[in-house]
Amino acid sequence: MILRDIGEFGLIAKIRNWMGKSHPDVVQGIGDDVAVVEMGKKALLITTDILIEDIHFERSWIDPYRLGKKALAVNLSDIAAMGGIPKYFLISLGLPKTLPFSFVSLFYRGLKERARRFQVDLIGGDTSLSQKIIINICLIGEGKKGNLLFRNGARVGDDLYVSGTLGDAALGLKILQDKSTPKKPKGLIDKHLSPNPRIELGQALGRKKIASAMIDVSDGLLIDTRHILEESNVGARIWEDRIPLSSPFRKWVSPYSKDPYRIALSGGEDYELLFTASPKRKASILSLARSLNIPITRVGEILPEKEGFHLIGKEGEKIPSYRLGFDHFK
Amino acid sequence: MILRDIGEFGLIAKIRNWMGKSHPDVVQGIGDDVAVVEMGKKALLITTDILIEDIHFERSWIDPYRLGKKALAVNLSDIAAMGGIPKYFLISLGLPKTLPFSFVSLFYRGLKERARRFQVDLIGGDTSLSQKIIINICLIGEGKKGNLLFRNGARVGDDLYVSGTLGDAALGLKILQDKSTPKKPKGLIDKHLSPNPRIELGQALGRKKIASAMIDVSDGLLIDTRHILEESNVGARIWEDRIPLSSPFRKWVSPYSKDPYRIALSGGEDYELLFTASPKRKASILSLARSLNIPITRVGEILPEKEGFHLIGKEGEKIPSYRLGFDHFK
């Protein structure tokens, strides 16, 4: 048996099983985007992400400045999705020995831009020779225990919301990869190359006790909704035509997909927040969206587990959800 | 200018400069093996190490079980060198999709063996496809602020001690790489493949306030002594013939080096503890060595900075130290 036969989620389940029970201070461990550990009155949040050249990015698509920004941003998004406060990070780099020094200095310039913007400090790391560029960031944050949001808090009757618009990053990537489109729309490309972690929104949703469960949309709306449903033991319906699409997305999507919602549902790398909240919190959510100037859209609702997970199409038809997302080993 | 022209230590200096000042809670940041952050009464210790196939290891030398053990051990050694208590770790893996599943399960078996032995919990990570195997561990520990040992505490007149024996791991690697030696000495090979982090020794040296400065020997005795000297603003002499060599080392070294001390001084990957202590602590050190059953040898003494750093050879001659260690980009 080889790794491809097991898939990423299968492997994670195995690892959880092999490693066994952890210390009672570990609130959230293997299999989640963020590990949570009790440390006195606070909780320590730790997340890590690896980016590998020619797997996650190509040097011909992304300049080193934006690569530095993105490497930190994807980790910040994981902390945002818990309502946490990011604090410190370490970076391990694998670098080819013939890499121009200017690449490294621009990469760090991008890293520093995001670090300043979100007030996080680089406190260490490791560097090594490598054939391909490898970037591994470990980001540490903190939060008050009562303010943190997990995937498992969704309740039947809650509404399902998403911030921003979906599909832009995935469409941006398709356009980047498409050699037949010389003039590339900057907005969509930027959504792919320079994602904006929703730190302030995540913290407000936790601090004001507005949301009941939360995750960031990194694997696509379908897969990430499924994570909330599985951990909360609930079902859900999503109204396809309520999924927020940007106008550049609507303008550019047709050559790449007959059904625009397909990309928005399963594209991934949106780094928007997906959360559930009681219908009573509707007014607070509207006012938060206005004050932070971030669109927040109600795209679905939480159902009893036995009703499963389905989409409602434009004609009102019920479409059972299916796994369209990206499994790293398949 | 390319990376090779700058070298690893040059790059770290640049990064420290680019990223600027960090938050006052950061006790130790960029450039050290372990980052230290104040968290209430405790200090949080964080260290990260990246291992890349065909750079740090080859699949033909090391089986997956020992690779798992070693990946965690090298990080544990960094926490040991501060007298800290290791607690949690995250692991990012890059894995080829055709890797046999048995490789991954044996790797985790090795990881778990070290995790149990040193009571640390795997709490998260990331996995990705990759051409070469990539292993990045981020290990988190803690310590009482007053018990932690840094590189900068050595004082003139202190003795310089090292645990265990030196050079075994470096010689083990040379023998592993040598195709003309079919029968390989297990002891030396094991020192390279299965280093044993000195966690209990490190903690005792900190808790009992025995040592004044400490580091683990990962880059070789010369380079790691130099780190203590630079950060403590002192000089040192090391008596070459006091450097502890194991009997397998003495037996096997001659085909690989005319001067056996050359490998012991600059080989690296020993993962022993190198520390300074006041001469008054000699009796406590002897008794600690006996109770933990770990050899501890006085190899040198700390001098005023203006006397520099030199070795005393077998004939009593003064040999100025020179940089023999391993710079990852050169």
Describe the fold and architecture.
- The structure is a homodimer of 330-residue chains.
- Chain A has 2 domains: 32-146, 60s Ribosomal Protein L30, Chain: A (2-Layer Sandwich); 149-320, Phosphoribosyl-aminoimidazole Synthetase, Chain A, domain 2, CATH 3.90.650.10.
- In chain A, strand 2 and strand 3 form a beta hairpin.
- Chain A has helices spanning 7-19, 64-80, 101-117, 168-177, 186-193, 199-207, 221-232, 247-252, 260-266, 282-292, and strands spanning 26-28, 35-39, 42-52, 85-95, 121-129, 134-144, 159-163, 213-216, 235-239, 273-277, 296-303, 309-312, 318-320.
- Chain A has 10 helices and 13 strands.
- In chain A, the strands form 2 sheets. Chain A has a 7-stranded mixed beta sheet with strand order 8-10-7-11-9-12-13, with helices on both faces. A 6-stranded mixed beta sheet of chain A has the order 1-2-3-6-4-5, with helices on one face.
- The longest helix of chain A is centred in the first third of the chain and has 17 residues, at 64-80.
- Residues 323-330 of chain A have low confidence and may be disordered.
- Chain A starts with 6 loop residues before the first helix and ends in a 10-residue tail after the last strand.
- With 330 residues, chain A is α+β, with helices and mostly antiparallel strands.
